[in-house]
């Protein structure tokens, strides 16, 4: 009880109820004054310590994140970039390819390098799918003297440094968070790469002097719930069915803004389900191949009223030709150092195959190529961002780019399967590696 009484006297109380042994007068004033000064001192000390800790943490984060990682920077690094950017043909380009360790990025980089353009790659090697495949593509590019910078398009200081080292004439922007259905699992990654990353890249391009012309990957998914076929560039694209599609559509609006304000020359390419050797393991044709060879079941989605889903599958070599033609027909950006000097080119093209194939037909082709029957599990398409069909109208690309796809799905999948077996091997139905 005594303790309780003692505790009580130091407990804060409602005004008028506070009891203390410092009755009244000078003693009490002195105590209060002393107590408040020392408390303030302690608080001030605490705040100083907190600020110091915060600042040192921030500079640690800055050095790790915002600027070059250990793999970047330094004289050797700059030398590799300069050498990779060297042009070996008359009037050739110096191209920065973002997403160079990706499927389309690696193919486009090789095509440009082979014809004598200077190519510098950029890729963050994220683990959305098997990183070893990205590293293998990187080795392939290295063998052709293409250097890939390991970095993120959100790293503005690193981008500024790249533009300082090389006066890129063009940027082929293919870095993105791909995949339609994964957007439900990890929505933020789409905002990070396809929105924030895009803006960061455009900021670097707008500030660069000279400004590069930009060609970048939009997507057939922007047509969303559009049911007017074939899809034309002038069709409505304001009903996306997935967050992926919404970020690609937003990218089209964002690039338009940079074209309008800063005079950046911009070409957006709406790719239609691109497939082929060195492809993406998250895509259906790729994962179906793996499962069929391993004797595992595949899930085939079906639309409402038992209607088969269909895609305008487009072979990688056709897409590469469309990308290169877009670079070749790009006009120069008109601004410099962040200031527009006049109107600049702004284009959007469909790059598809113009002959949709149903998913069960695609599976049938794979079964024939692999000589293995698939264990099919057919289910109704879940509400996960998928659209029932895609079909490109490519008249615009044909007219302006001379784009003419030449590979049907049968021929293209044959080439894919050949690559798959040589890359992963085939061992009693088990994929290895
Ligand atoms: O053109 C694009 O802009 C996009 O193309 C690609 O998306 P999609 O056309 O959806 O390709 P993909 O996943 O191979 O599914 C193909 C078909 O198989 C069906 N599908 C899929 C998986 C499955 O398990 N079962 C199935 O039936 C599925 O329902 C669909 O009908 C890119 O991934 C995307 O990043 C983007 O670039």
Automatic annotation (TrEMBL):
It comes from the Eukaryota. The chain crosses the membrane at residues 33-57. Gene3D superfamilies: NAD(P)-binding Rossmann-like Domain (3.40.50.720), UDP-galactose 4-epimerase, domain 1 (3.90.25.10). Its main location: Golgi. It holds the Pfam family Epimerase. It is a multi-pass membrane protein. It is an enzyme of class 5 (isomerase). Homodimer. This is UDP-glucuronate 4-epimerase. It comes from Buddleja alternifolia. The lineage of its organism: Eukaryota, Viridiplantae, Streptophyta, Embryophyta, Tracheophyta.
